[in-house]
Design a protein that fits this description.
The chain is mostly helical.
């Protein structure tokens, strides 16, 4: 790769010195951003890169909606008395926050944006296997979002994001049906995307790109897609049963008429615990890419990292019962689920161990993406270790439905997943836009996010152990100091989330122009132009080495491809 970079510099110098017109190279194809103009070209596009940006725009809107719910919750909890909104309004507000953030941001955030953009580039493909299905999945997602917005505007939902029966089927008089239909629709969008990703990885890999030459982000997206395709139909089925009970008065979950409300919990958590890995597995892939690039070392234990991803994807289907230790299920079933919940911590520990050893003796560069990666490792480790307490039946019984669970969930899903999303966004921003983000502002935002998040949610562990229940708008005065700390931390966290939106938008116009490979990384996506052309590569790549081809103390030659042999796309 060093020789290739020198050749490129020589080519540029030769071009500047003056190349005879008869021998001037042909113009490069236009980038995907400028290939077609007009709103219609975006709304009807089948280019995976443009669809990724459409998803990013929609997710930003839902992030603001869900964040507004979080702001309202923290403002209410600033004082012990419920003086900002009624108890019913508070129920609707935390339901809004949960439903929007889980299904309309966290689940699709990395797969549908970075995954959609990068997967074909990372395997040397021109597009996804089914481009029209990709566009259809975005329209289904938008339709689902419109249905949810209707439910929120019309009066909201007060069941919590879990839609627990029989409350959601019998007692709630809010807009449950519209919200349930929205989640069902977004599930179909996820399934379509998952099928597309699986087919793409199987069918469209570049010549020479064998399974164990795939980047870890591709493995993570592949594993996530398997979980989506296998688990989401169960969620769809149980939500359809809620719809049937409310719309047609079928006694599915009503115990008074022979129904079984615990059946809902079993079906819901059979999907929703694997959904935790739908949210976090792509983050594992992103962090692996960042750590190896900025440590200038190959990933330690690459095959173990792959097996850990697949282990999580499989075992994740067997641990749902730890959400039901206090529901009255069999003690023997609880013991089995407790054991399996400890077992699934092993592959996550392998990943943290391998990231740490990748950093060991590495030539580490503390650019903004690396700071986000380090923040992710810290927050995810805290979240993972506190999750082990929830796998223990006696402790889980004590802290169930307290703020301890809120803190643990957010350390994993928000602290981890959002840190990885922002880290990946900064890392691949030059490839998306052809511009560099301002590094000083980006470093500041990464550090602020880590401390703001810790200041917001760590006090909740203490509140949970002391017995503060979640989902209460009023609380005993002795908990106020912890809630004030959390609300002040939330202000810092909000600044850390909003700041990148400002300077990234600024960089689109005034940012420094990025080269094709500003980070000196080794993936196939860095062997094409920034931003890429419509069909991703000027010449089809051929892979001859494994991933992360770094020397122990610096960048190695990288994957040898037809694109790097002929980087300008000239005729040879």
């Amino acid at each position: 790769m060093s020789d290739i970079t020198a050749d490129r510099a020589g080519d540029r110098a030769g071009d500047q010195a003056g190349t005879p017109a008869a021998f001037s190279p042909p113009a490069r194809p236009a980038s995907y951003l400028t290939a077609e103009q007009g709103i219609a070209s975006w709304l009807l596009t089948t280019d995976h890169k443009r669809i990724a940006l459409l998803y990013a725009l929609a997710l930003t809107v839902f992030f603001f909606i869900g964040g507004a719910g979080a702001v309202a919750i923290r403002l209410e909890l600033f004082t012990p008395a419920q003086d900002l909104m009624s108890a019913d309004a508070y129920n609707r507000m935390f339901t809004l926050h949960g439903v929007v953030m889980v299904w309309f941001f966290l689940v699709p955030s990395i797969p549908n944006t970075l995954g959609n953009f990068l997967l074909p580039l990372m395997i040397g493909a021109k597009d996804l296997a089914f481009p029209r299905l990709n566009l259809l999945s975005w329209y289904v997602f938008i339709t689902a979002g419109a249905c949810l917005v209707y439910a929120l505007v019309a009066g909201g939902v007060d069941t919590g994001w879990t839609f627990y029966a029989p409350y959601s089927t019998t007692f709630s008089n809010s807009y449950v049906v519209a919200a349930v239909l929205a989640v069902i629709a977004v599930g179909f969008s996820s399934i379509a995307t998952g099928v597309n990703f699986i087919a793409t990885v199987h069918m469209l890999r570049a010549p020479g790109l064998h399974w164990f030459r795939l980047p870890l982000l591709v493995w993570a997206i592949y594993g996530t897609s398997l979980v989506i395709v296998l688990a989401t139909p169960v969620l769809t089925a149980v939500l359809l049963l809620i719809f049937a009970e409310r719309a047609f008065d079928l006694p599915v979950f009503d115990a008074a008429r022979g129904g079984d409300p615990l059946l809902f919990q079993h079906l819901f958590w059979f999907y929703s615990h694997p959904a935790v890995y739908i949210m976090i597995l792509p983050s594992f892939g992103v962090i692996s890419e960042l750590v190896t690039c900025f440590a200038r070392r190959q990933v330690f234990g690459y095959r173990f990292m792959v097996y850990a991803i697949l282990w999580i994807a499989v075992i994740g289907f067997t641990v749902w019962g730890h959400h039901m230790f206090v529901s009255g299920q069999s003690l023997y079933a609880s013991l089995v689920f407790s054991f399996l919940s400890f077992v699934i911590a092993v592959p996550s520990a392998i990943k943290v161990f391998n990231w740490t050893f990748t950093l060991y003796r590495g030539d580490i560069r503390f650019d903004a993406p690396m700071l986000y990666a380090i923040g992710f490792i810290g927050l995810f480790t805290i979240g993972g270790l506190t999750g082990l307490f929830l796998a223990s039946i006696p402790i889980d019984v004590h802290v169930s439905d307290t703020y301890y669970v809120v803190a643990h969930f957010h350390f994993i899903m928000v602290g981890g997943a959002v840190s990885a999303f922002y880290g990946g966004l900064h890392f691949w921003w030059p490839k998306l836009t052809g511009r560099m983000a301002p590094d000083r502002w980006a470093r500041f935002a990464a550090i602020l996010m880590f401390f703001g998040f810790s200041f917001t949610f760590f006090p909740m562990f203490i509140m949970g152990f002391l017995g503060m229940p979640r989902r209460y708008g009023a609380y005993p005065p002795e908990f106020q100091v912890y809630h004030v700390m959390a609300s002040c931390g939330a202000v810092l966290l909000a600044v850390a989330y909003l700041l990148p939106m400002g300077y990234l938008a600024w960089s689109l116009i005034w940012g420094k122009r990025a080269g094709n490979n500003p980070w000196d990384a080794t993936g196939l996506e860095w062997q094409t132009t920034s931003p890429p052309p419509r069909e991703n590569f000027h010449t089809p790549p051929v892979v001859e080495t494994g991933p992360y081809y770094y020397h122990p103390h610096g960048r190695g030659p990288g994957p040898r491809t037809a694109e790097t042999e002929n980087p300008q796309g000239h005729e040879t």
